Amino acid sequence: MEGWLTRIATNTCLNMVRSAKRRPELTVSDLTEDENKWLDEQLSDVASEPARSVEQTLIASDLADRVLGVLPPEDQLALLMMDGEDATVKEVAEATGWSESNVKVRAFRARKKLREAMEKLLSHKKKVEVR
Amino acid sequence: MKDECIIEILDSGSLVSFSEEQLVVIRAHTQSCVGCADAYSAVVISSAVIKERVQTTIEPSPFFQTRVLAALREQQAAENVPVLSRLWKSAGVLVSSMAVTTAALAALSFMVPSPVAPVAEQTATAYSAESVLLDQANEEQMSYEQVLSTIYADENEAK
């Protein structure tokens, strides 16, 4: 019953996210000043864990929405569950109704897409700052 | 280590799932490779973004519960409907169209008379093989006297 209900809720969420317009690409001009600052802080402190305030958390959350917006809803779900909530492949498969190999493939592709989008954003940011 | 290799490792799992040894190797490689250093920075920030996203509690919209309950009712209703009925619902249009087409073809085959058959019959009765070959179809049979008069011009000679 729990798994069944989880799957229905998951699919409802996916449908809601699907109906929202997806941004195919993220550029520096899409970011607010605060989000840019947050990114700078993260970049300057890549090796260590940066301190977080409530305000920063909110900024980061907004930025997360924008960054994750480049991914399809299914990929977002797989990535957030596996990398964010540390769910196993089996747990994601049970919640979504996808096969385990499908979950693995989605998570791999999502990480790749997110990394590429972030690399693009950072290099664009560097270019803008040089100018 | 090849650049592709480091990037493949970075894409294979979350940053938290990497062992200390793997992280040491990755960090050492990023010191000498600019491309991999950029990829690593992107992965670290992506990981931070995902963490922040997960920590934020989102209040569901007031319609969310309604939607979930609607989906639940829909699924329950679908499960209560018999299998044949569900099959008919999905394939009904196709089956109906196929049945109509078959009926139409059957009607055309059996009810409408074929225009080719009477022509063949007529042809068969009008011409026999002999008449076609000798071209005597419409010729009237000549009487014995007519033949004689044709051969012999003089009437007395014919007699």
What does this structure look like?
The complex is a heterodimer of chains A (131) and B (159). With 131 residues, chain A is mainly α. Chain A has one domain (2-130). Helix content of chain A is 73%, strand content 0%. Chain A has helices at residues 2-19, 33-44, 54-68, 73-84, 89-96, 100-130. The longest helix of chain A is centred in the last third of the chain and has 31 residues, at 100-130. Chain A starts with a helix and ends with a helix. With 159 residues, chain B is mostly helical. Chain B has a domain at 1-82. In chain B, helix 1 packs parallel to helix 3 (34-55) and helix 2 packs across helix 3 (34-55). The mean pLDDT of chain B is 77. The chains are: A mainly alpha (131), B mainly alpha (159).
Low-confidence stretches of chain B: none
**Structural classification of chain A:** mainly alpha
Using DSSP, what is the number of strands of chain B?
A: 0
- For the terminal residues of chain A, how far apart are their CA atoms? 58 Å
Query: Approximately how much beta-strand content do the residues of chain A carry?
Result: under 5%
Average of pLDDT of chain A: 80
Helix content of chain A: over 70%
Q: Helical stretch count of chain A? A: 6
Over all CA atoms, what is the radius of gyration of chain B?
A: 48 Å
